[in-house]
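dude i think i finally got it to work??
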Amino acid sequence: MDLDVFVSAHRAEWDRLDALLRRRRLTGAEADELVTLYQRTATHLSLIQSSAPDPQLTGRLSRLVARARSTVTGTRRASWHDAARFLTLGFPAAVYRARHWWIPTALVSTAAAALLGWWIGTHPEVQASLAAPDELRALTRPGGQYETYYSSHPAASFAAQVWTNNAQAAAMCLVLGVFLGLPVLWILFQNMLNLGVGIGLMSSAGRLDTFLGLVLPHGLLELTAVFVAAGAGLRLGWTVIDPGPRSRRTALAEEGRAAVGMAIGLALVLFVSGAIEGFVTPSGLPTWARITIGITAEVAFLAYVYVLGGRAARAGDTGDLAAAERSAVVPTAA
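look at this
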């Protein structure tokens, strides 16, 4: 693209749009003209950004398009309707669309944790490298640290701390996925290593049933949320490599906005798992009752994703902003 020729050809349209935006009142014909010029200028901006980026011109047209967009669409404020739409359509649709990433992530990660647990549990020399024998006994004995960990702090503060830590881990998976997914793999490895160590040490002490009875009530939903975040982060990283038929800028913008929405939604999911970990896991309920609560929460989340999310995704919802709230883009050939 010859930028000078392009500017010369369209400068009059941009100046006319700027003049219309400065007016307090517009006639019907002028309002129609403003909408037409806004759409053309948005297309011009996309063309310049993709073909001949010029910082000064891009900045001018971006400001012009933003002003026109505000005039055309009006000032919009978030409402309870937006929150309801996000929870019933946007978030479950985004999780559903990412299922081809987070389900394999969950299966591979769970298998890795089980393999690590078996390796640690069947190799005393590996256990000895982790801690001294007295320290291992303090961890795994009845009433030891693995058991008292969940009741060592007041339930409310413990639940809040757990929720904060897990929400941060999920957000990091989503945000850092843009770095080709490599930080996500490291975060996943750390989580699975901690789980594998617990499985291995408690199984070597003959107390694996106790360990699973403590982990499963909250761990099913908690780990699912982490796997969803990791899968979405890996998909975002793959978008950097292969954006598909979209331009890389457009693909990253769309997937990035969906990832931010997922971070908010997963924070709510992790709030539930944190409440279970803080109030149910250390409770006096029998093991079967605590595990049943955990399974119920997990099944409810999966049903929420596959029923509401599947229906919304099939209707075209991607978890991104509504079409009217996105910037105009130029179609890209496949």
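The chain is about 80% helix and 0% strand.
im so relieved honestly
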